[in-house]
Amino acid sequence: MSPLTAFVLINTKIGAEDLVSDAIKKLIKSSKDLVEGRVYSLFGEYDLIVVVSAEKIESIEGFVSTIRKMPEVTRTTTLVSST
Asked: Of 1, 4, 12, 76, which residue has the fewest beta carbons closer than 10 angstroms?
């Protein structure tokens, strides 16, 4: 089975974009369940997008849950692709 890819769109508190981005990068590096991951800054409706791949949906769910618990994160939208 090929890895699942998740696109996590994130809104942060004003001025917290770099803090959240750095925290997510550390989370990606320390995760044993993710195949790969990247964080990008955005202009527009969302502040950041995180693209991660994992073999199991539970790995993505746990990763996104951790992001949602960050006090600087105000909103997330997650899209998952199976190909």
From this structure: 1
- pLDDT tens digit sequence for 20-29: 999 999 999 9
Q: Which domain holds residue 35?
A: 4-81
To the question of pTM greater than 0.85 for the whole model, the response is yes
H or E stretch covering 58:
helix 57-68
Q: What is the count of structural domains for the chain?
A: 1
79 burial (CB, 10 Å; 0-12 / 13-18 / 19+) is exposed
